UniProtKB/TrEMBL annotation:
The modification 4-aspartylphosphate is found at residues 94, 236. InterPro entries: CheY-like_superfamily, HPT_dom_sf, Sig_transdc_His_kin_Hpt_dom, Sig_transdc_resp-reg_receiver. This is Response regulator. PROSITE patterns: HPT, RESPONSE_REGULATORY. It is found in: Cell membrane. Residues 40-164, 185-303 form the Response regulatory domain. It comes from the Bacteria. It is a multi-pass membrane protein.
Amino acid sequence: MGGQLQVTSQVGIGSRFWFDVTFPIMVVGESQQIDLSGYRVLVVDDNQLTAEILHKILTGLGCEVEIALGGYSALTQSALADEALRPFDVILMDWRMPELDGLQTAEMLRESHSNNRTPLVVMLTAYGHEVIAESQQIKDVPFVNFLTKPVTSQVLAETIVNAIQGKPMDTHPKPRSQRLLAGLTILVVEDNQLNRQVIDELLSYEGASVILAEGGVSGVDLVLENENLFDIVIMDMQMPDMDGLEATRRIRSDERFATLPILAMTANASQSDRQDCLDAGMNDHVSKPIDMPLLLRSILQLVGREVATTQQYAEYYSTATVSLEDEPLLDNIDLILQRFGGNESFFHKIAQNFSPEMNKQLAQLTQATRVADYEKAAAVSHAIKGVASSFGARRLATYSAYLEQQFKQKSFEQVEVEHWVDKLAVLIQQSSQQIATYGESTEASIFANDGTNQLSQPATTVQNIKLELNTLMTLLAENNLEAITRVDQLAPSLSGHPQWSVLYTQVQALEFAQALDTLHIIVLEDK
C-alpha cells in the first residue's frame, strides 16, 4: 500500500504503533431521491404515531399509502383493495401486535391470495434478530424482508425497491465470531422496561440474539410455543403477573424443557433466595446490578461453553447491617461503566432515562402508600432497588431495599411512611443529579480530541451550527425519522447546552412536536 509502519517502546511504560498511508479522495455523488410513484403501500402498525410517521415518509416518496392499526384490519383492507382491482404492492407489517401478530397476519394474507399475486410483506420490528431467529424456524417465510425500527426514509425506500425487484434478504448474517455469546438465542424475562433495555444492549453487544418478555406469563408462553428456539432463559424473580419461581415451575412441568438452562436474576442476594431458585428448578442465580463478567461466566457455563477465568462472583449488596451514612451515594464511574460493558456512549444514552424512570416509580410508590396498598409499595421499592443497583446508586439501592422489607412486614405507623417517601424522594433527586454529571463526563470523554474536549459556550455553538439546526427543524416538522440520526450528529456541538438533554430525549422518544418547540427555544436564546 506504499505506507510505513513504525513503533516506539519503553520498558514499564508501553508501546506505541502508528502508520502513514496515502489514499485517493473518493468522489461521492449526491444520493438520488428514490421515486416510488405509482406503488400502493399498506402500513400495518398498532402504534398510530409510528403508522402516521411512516405514512408521511412514504407519501413523500410518491407512494399511495393506507394505514391499518392491526392485523385483522390489514386483512380486511387488503381484501377490499383486491376487490376494487387496486391491490397493494407492498405491505409494511409490524412484527409485534396484539390479537394477531405480523407473522400470523402475513401467513393469512398468503393463504388468502393462493390463486393470485400476494402483496410483498416487509416486516417492521424493534429487534431485527427476532425476525432472523424466528424465520429460521419456518421453511417458507411469508415476508420478503425486514426493517429494524426506527427507520430512515432512505433505508425504507431502498428496502421497498429491493423487495419489488426481488432481491432476497440475508437471514444468515455473518456471526460476530469474536463475541462470547455469538450464536446463542437468549430469552430475557423482566418486567422493568429500563432493565430490559440495559440487558438487551449488553447481551446483544456480546453477539447474542435477545428476545424480551415483559412478564412471567409471556415468558412462559414464549418458551412453551418455541421448543428449540432458546439456548437459555434469564428470569427475573419478582414480577407482578407471575414471579420467576412460578414461571420456572410451569416451564419445568413440560418435560420438553427439563434441561433448558434457566438463570435467575434478582436484586435479592441472600442464600435463602438462591436456594428458592434452585428448588424451583433454576440452574443458577446472579444478582442485580448486572455485572457483565459474572453474567457472561454463568451463561457460558450453563450452555456448555467453558471459559478460562478465575474471576469470582462479586460481593452482594448488604442491607442488613450497613447504614446509609456508610454507603457512597454512587459507585465509582469506572465500576458503573464496567456493568455497562465499558460502553461510554451507551451509558450516556441510557443515563438520561434514569431520572424519568425513578420519578415515575416514586409517583407509583406515593400513590400506593396513600391507599395503604403496601404489597404494591413493596413491589415498587423492589423495582427501584433493581434499577438503582444497575446504575451504581448505592445509597438509593440500600434504602429502597430497606423500604421493601418494611412494607412486607407491615409493622409501622403512617407517619413513618410519609417520612420514608420524603427521604426516598431526596435520594432519587441526589442520585439523578450525580448520574447526570457522570453522563456528561462520559459524553465529554467520547468527543474529546487533542485538547478540544472543552465544549463551547451554548450561544457560540448554536451560532456555528445554524444550518444544521434548520435542517433538524425541517425534519422534526415533517415527522421525518432522519431527525434521530441528525440529533446524534449534533451531540458534539450541542451537548453543552442546558436544553440538550431535553431535546435529545424528546427526539429519541419520537416526540417530534415537543422536540421542535425545544429546538425553537435553543435557537431563540441565541438571538
